[in-house]
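PROTEIN DESIGN WORKSHEET
SECTION A - STRUCTURE
LENGTH: 239
TOKENS:
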């Protein structure tokens, strides 16, 4: 299954595989989500190490970002003021470059692709936090993540993570953690009410696709969070 290209140019040879277990030829796409301060980073690194130890090739990446172009767009999105449509267009432009040049090729190679945030963040931050039109976000998602019609599994029309690990943390607690952090970026500087809406945005995504999400209680001690994440992967037979 390849990324569908909207222009005339032929589709790339890279394939996006349907949900596949590590060990099959298909890759495994796992995204990590949560409000700022939820503490994703160390756990993503630890999981990458665990997969490598299990003999898997790992691609570790993030959004917005993951390619030279997308990282430039990240700087703009995280630092410059703009209206929510502009913000959404830039984020999805970065995502498109990332999907075509990093995500699709990595999955075609059979890698485990660990992505720090993906489209759920757009629904949570732009949709929930900013109150931007969810229907427009869905349209952008459909354009950017469309898969070929000649896919072996025609039911899978959109590239989506096989699993999304949601670090669920009360916004009040995240605010306390962020208070000691480095200089906040544009999003981190938002008020508590913004993060309440972001958290509600994530909860709504989980409700729509409960099978794709694993909710982790991120208010626990880091060891317990790591243990819960490992448990989710063991239960699926992926580690
Ligand atoms: P992140 O990399 O988690 O931040 P940091 O490096 O500071 O830990 O995420 C960057 C920010 O971008 C985060 O505040 C959420 C925001 N974001 C969106 O608003 N929409 C999106 O679609 C994505 C992917 C991120």
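SECTION B - SEQUENCE
RESIDUE ASSIGNMENT:
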């Amino acid at each position: 299954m390849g990324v569908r290209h909207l222009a005339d140019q032929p589709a790339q040879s890279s394939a996006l595989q349907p949900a596949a277990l590590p060990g099959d030829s298909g890759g495994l796409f796992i995204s990590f989500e949560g409000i700022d301060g939820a503490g994703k980073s160390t756990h993503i690194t630890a999981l990458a190490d665990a997969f490598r130890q299990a003999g898997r090739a790992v691609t570790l990446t993030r959004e917005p970002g993951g390619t030279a172009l997308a990282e430039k767009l990240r700087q703009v999105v995280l630092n410059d003021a703009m209206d929510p449509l502009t913000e959404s267009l830039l984020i999805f432009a970065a995502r498109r470059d990332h999907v075509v040049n990093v995500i699709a090729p990595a999955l075609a190679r059979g890698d485990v692709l660990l992505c720090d945030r993906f489209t759920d963040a757009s629904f949570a931050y732009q949709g929930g936090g900013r109150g931007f039109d969810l229907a427009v976000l869905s349209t952008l998602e459909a354009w950017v993540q469309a898969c070929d019609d000649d896919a072996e599994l025609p039911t899978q029309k959109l590239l989506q993570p096989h699993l999304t690990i949601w670090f669920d943390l009360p916004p009040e607690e995240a605010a306390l953690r962020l208070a000691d952090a480095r200089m906040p970026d544009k999003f981190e500087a938002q008020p508590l009410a913004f993060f309440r809406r972001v958290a509600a945005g994530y909860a709504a995504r989980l409700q729509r696709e409960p099978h794709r999400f694993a909710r982790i209680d991120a208010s626990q001690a880091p060891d317990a969070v790591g243990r819960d994440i490992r448990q989710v992967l063991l239960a699926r037979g992926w580690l």
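SECTION C - NOTES
Residues 36, 62-64, 78, 91, 116-117, 121-122, 125-126, 185, 187 surround thymidine-5'-diphosphate (CB under 6 Å).
Strands lie at 28-34, 58-62, 112-116, 163-168, 213-217.
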